[in-house]
Fold this sequence. Notes:
By secondary structure, this protein is mainly alpha-helical. The protein has helices at 8-18, 27-34, 38-43, 57-64; strands at residues 24-25, 55-56.
Amino acid sequence: MSREKQGYRDTIAALNKMFPNQGMLNKTETAQFLGVDPKTVNRRGIQFNKATGRVTIADLARQICI
């Protein structure tokens, strides 16, 4: 069984606090959480769903945790 990445639960909590009642975020919201320009999100390697252009909160937390 795989382990959670360090800081995963803290990141989920912070995302839920900043974006309550949202399951998925777009690039602008992701950039707002990370504190960067929306153009920078692509360079950070964040993977978004190609059909919707959004990322789930759980996937985002996995991608940005150590």
